[in-house]
Design a protein that fits this description.
Elements: E1 6-7, E2 13-14, H1 26-37, E3 53-56, H2 61-69, H3 83-87, E4 92-95, E5 105-108, E6 116-130, E7 138-150, E8 156-159
Parallel strand pairs: 3-4
Antiparallel strand pairs: 1-2, 3-5, 5-8, 6-7
């Protein structure tokens, strides 16, 4: 899902991860947000993506709290302004318990704008049973198969860590 060489229609490419995977930190997050906002569509025009969520493993919760909630820049002693908190106050963190890589992190835009999809195909058998009571309910036997994936990698930016 995250790669440096996604193909575009106009024969170009776009990236949704750092050139070299990196652990979550202040400078890495600033660069990631800049790259995320600079994402282009299939014809090289700006995709106008805004970061909304920082998806992290639970081992990164304290670093994410420093990066997103602290008014001062993390790791400095002279009270530099935390530009991430100042410019993106709506950026929130989400601890995702199913991430298996402990130092991976991802920036996501609004969930209604991402193009992750679920396709479900349902096949209903021709058997129908009437419930054994007086409710007039019917019981259908059915089977279904589900496939999920992504249509477009835009809206997700991340790294598996350093």
């Amino acid at each position: 899902l995250c790669a440096t060489d996604h193909k575009r229609v106009d024969e170009g490419t776009f990236s949704n991860r750092p050139t070299a995977n990196a652990d979550l930190g202040y400078t890495v997050l600033e660069s990631a947000i800049t790259d995320f906002e600079g994402t282009v569509d299939d014809y090289g025009d700006p995709a106008m993506l805004m970061p909304k969520t920082l998806l992290i493993h639970q081992s990164n919760r304290f670093m994410a709290a420093q990066l997103l909630e602290n008014l001062d820049k993390a790791g400095t002693g002279n009270r530099d302004l935390n530009a991430v908190k100042n410019q993106f106050p709506e950026l929130s963190r989400y601890i995702y318990p199913y991430l298996t890589d402990t130092d991976s992190w991802y920036i996501l835009n609004d969930k209604n704008e991402r193009q992750i999809f679920v396709i479900m195909r349902e096949k209903i058998n021709k058997r129908m049973y009437v419930a054994p009571d007086n409710t007039l309910d019917a019981i259908f036997l059915s089977r279904f198969r589900m496939v999920s994936g992504f249509l477009d990698a835009r809206g997700i930016y991340g790294s598996t860590g350093g």
